[in-house]
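Problem 12. The chain below contains 333 residues. Write out its predicted structure in token notation.
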Amino acid sequence: MNNSTNSEKAKYQGGLKYFYGAGGEVINLLGENVNKFSAHRAVYTTAYVDDLKAKLAAALAMPATAKEIAGRAVLRLMLKTEAIRVRDKFQSLKTYVESAWVESEWDQQLKKAGSANYVKSQVKWGATQLLGVEALEFIGQNKTKLQAGGENMPDTFETEFQDAVKDFETAYKRFKGANSVKLSVKNAKIKANNAVYDALVIISRDAAVVFKRSKDEMRKQFSYSYQLAVAKGGAASFKGTAVDQFGNGIPDVVITSSNQKYSAVTDSKGYFRITKAKAGPVTFIFTFGDETVELPVTLKAGTAKTVTVTMNVAVEEVVNIDASAPAAEEAAA
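Solution.
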């Protein structure tokens, strides 16, 4: 079905399910650091944060889907029922055509009656409407032939078909009206969300300036994409280096998680990396020979936890042998 109203495009990722949680986290962080932001731009005040929270709450409260528009499902069911009536009437017309014309003319006459739209009408409401119009026009032009013999098309059939088409058109009009309301409501919600998202983008850019001397971790928390990953419980990673007591990388250290879900082995420089881990607390066990180190960590979605693990590696005792001693002894002998 064509609609003159264009659909509003969401600027944000993650859909409605995660937008409000991720956006809310950024706004809460802004509230906690509003004094730092206000030093960068005067617009950042407590009132600004409160206003942004109110806008997010208002957007959340707005209806979003067809399920929240009362009666639309009922209208769709009614429309489907009326469409079936129109198609059933066409099937009856088909039998009248086959009785009134010889078999070699059936296809030609049925095409004039709208058979091309019959198949389309099973998936397109507009085709059902065209089917009814063409069929009624055909009946009006061929009524005498269709009623020939007295046992073919009944006198009341044309009126019955007209009623079916009229009822379908009425249901179709009401359904399109409900669809228009649905789209308007959906667009209004997306527009409200986009307005909040635009503010979040600016906050993220300003955070890069406000915290330019801080660690990347702080700046990252003001990113919508980062908070979205956290809201989704997205994947985290765990990386680092296993070193001995002298700071040298240890190869072939086996790393396993206590839940047995993740594992890795260090390379020749002692480096390891575990990706696609679930965010949350987990204990990793580092094993090299008889030495074992347990390290509890908390992984955060969308981030890489980096560690350096020191392991006490046994140092083999080296015995220097003086090769010249035997020769000296032999010479003495």
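Discussion. DSSP finds eleven helices and seven strands in the chain. Students who got a different answer should revisit the alignment rule from Section 12.3.
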